[in-house]
Amino acid sequence: MSEHAREHVRVAVIGSGFGGLGAAVRLRREGITDFVVLERSDSVGGTWRDNSYPGCACDVPSHLYSFSFAPNPDWPRTFSGQPHIRAYLERVTDTFGLRPHLRLGHEVLLMRWDADALRWEIETSRGTLTADVVVSATGPLSDPKVPNLPGLDRFREEGGTVFHSARWDHDYDLTGKRVAMVGTGASAIQIVPAVQPRVGRLTLFQRTPAWVMPRVDRPITGVERWLHRQLPFTGQARRGILWGIRELQVSAFTKRPGELGLVESVAKANMRRAVKDPALRAKLTPSYRIGCKRILLSNDYYPALARPNVDVVAAGLAEVRGRVAVGADGTEAEVDAIVFGTGFHVTDMPIADRVVGADGLTLAEAWKDGMESLRGATAAGFPNWMTIIGPNTGLGNSSMILMIESQLNYMADFLHRLDLLGEGRALAPRPSAVAAWNRRLQARMERTVWKSGGCDSWYLDANGRNTTLWPGTTAEFRRATRSVDLAEYEVVRAPRETAGTSGTAGAGREGAVA
Fold first, then answer.
1. How many Å apart are CA 85 and CA 300, to the nearest integer?
2. pLDDT, mean of residues 234-254
3. What is the DSSP secondary structure assignment for residue 219, as one 8-state letter?
4. How far is CA 382 from CA 1, 244, 286, in A?
5. ∠ CA 51-78-251, rounded to 5°
6. How many whole angstroms separate alpha carbon 472 and alpha carbon 174?
7. Domains in the chain, start-ordered, CATH in brackets?
8. In angstroms, rounded to a whole number, what is the distance separating the alpha carbons of residues 283 and 262?
9. d(CA 418, CA 10)
10. Backbone phi, then psi, for 467, in 5-degree steps?
11. Where are the stretches annotated Disordered (predicted)?
């Protein structure tokens, strides 16, 4: 066991991406220093550490894709690349003194609620510790999803190379190789133009075409950066304008999808400028309303697809026969490497199998019919457990940092309420409150483009419910998470403090009062 075995902390934060580091900063700003950040990798950064594929960049403007409490006046471009975002997170870690709290190389294997001690027992790859409160910030883009296709193992045995975009094999040289790119999401549209000039042949297996808008990207001038350094309010104003524009767009996604027709015409014009072949344009034109799937931004994706060394197969990859990739429509292509840009386990996050709550159920079992939480943060049956970027906190058109900061407000008030209740108390959301919150969410979801737009997206779970996105503005979410409503919670007490339950294994519960 490591030196940290049986260590006890007030708060254990899981993950060191934007959510985990943001939680750590907020804890310190609240005067809480008795916490650790458990990270399975050897460095911070989350998805911006894991995704290092060629061309990796953000599709949210730089000044909006950074913490409000840690502005960066030196962003080099209006849309930043992965190296700059990762470097920003490293700077945040140093600036706010987070290094002493980091436990790198500590993969969380199991979190189990101890009803007698009212704490979480956390087993990691480097030992065991306990915590009063767990803040899970593993994020939905943590664990890649790779389809289990027939023949894939044999392809590897015969010398073929296979990897996911989030686990890029930098030791494999694509130069002159025959490459299959599987998927047409946010990663694929960046990978395709980045690798097309050097591969021998690129075959794109496209299950569903994406709507692609122009990317209005440019270098940020030295004068602009100087101005933001010398007059910080100019950077704040820039952030505010970017935020406001996106807030105004929300109603088209959530209430009036019919208004998105004009946006579709812009996307079609973007395609026509680069793709002159009518047959290829037909393959690349979606049949669903724009916004139903995530709208993608690129100026070089369509030009790359029009190059002579690129083939577009308008069907997903169905199987691999030896060194031949076979599409669902029967199209065959001999390949040396297969790159999967097939997304992540979003509605079935693997971390849920590692969380055991008060009733002995895992979070995955509790969510077997779909993810549900209270205000995107807490789950029924899991006392003193919170999540950052939880169910229905995702966005289709703006910066997730805005949502994360709202959840940090909720986390801070949750911990404050626990302090006021005193020792020997925990908080668990009432099942009725969780159910009521999600009924309202799903009722609002019916009007959105994500449910009515005619597509099958990763936003939806196996039951067709959208359990990932927030059907409103970021300002509305901030109001909803400004503080904890104790009427939505039960106060959980240790068994020894529960009348008539001495010696039992279950914890007592009482109504929470404000």
1. 21
2. 96
3. B
4. 27, 36, 42
5. 90
6. 43
7. 8-143+346-485 (3.50.50.60), 152-220+223-340 (3.50.50.60)
8. 21
9. 11
10. -110, 15
11. 495-514
Q: Do strands 317-321 and 324-327 pair parallel, antiparallel, or not at all (unpaired)?
A: antiparallel
CA distance 346 to 136: 14
CA distances from 343 to 186, 242, 280, 353, 404 (A): 9, 27, 24, 19, 21
CB 338 within 8 A of CB 164: no
CB 496 within 8 A of CB 502: yes
What is the value of pTM for the model shown? 0.93
Dihedral pair phi/psi, residue 425, rounded to 5°: -135, 145
- Is the pLDDT assigned to residue 183 strictly greater than 60? yes
- Residue 223 to residue 229: CA distance in whole angstroms: 10
Here the tokens at position 13 are 């934060």
Q: How far is CA 239 from CA 62, 199, 316, in A?
A: 9, 39, 39
Residue 317 backbone phi and psi in degrees, to 5: -75, 125
Rounded to the nearest angstrom, the gap between the alpha carbon of residue 64 and the centroid of all alpha carbons in its chain is: 16
E strands, 247-406, in order: 296-297, 310-313, 317-321, 324-327, 332-334, 337-340, 355-356, 385-387
Which residues have a Cβ under 8 Å from the Cβ of 235 and sit 6 or more positions away?
63, 71, 73, 228
Half-sphere exposure of 200 (CA within 13 A, CB side): 10
For the record, the structure tokens of 413 come out as: 């008030």
For 450-497, the pLDDT digits (tens) are 999 999 999 999 999 999 999 999 999 999 999 999 999 999 998 865
Tokens of 180: 């299959």
Q: What are the C-alpha distances in Å from 47 to residues 22, 41, 65, 118?
A: 14, 11, 14, 32
Let me know if 42 is exposed, middle or buried by CB neighbors in 10 A (0-12, 13-18, 19+).
exposed
Chain centroid to CA 125: 23
Q: What is the DSSP letter of 221?
A: P
Q: In the numeric block, which tokens belong to residue 472?
A: 């409103």
Distance CA 253, CA 396 (A): 8
Q: State residue 507's pLDDT score.
A: 54
Task: Kindly report the three-state secondary structure assignment for every residue of 325-355.
Answer: EEECCCCEEECCEEEECCCECCCCCHHHHHE
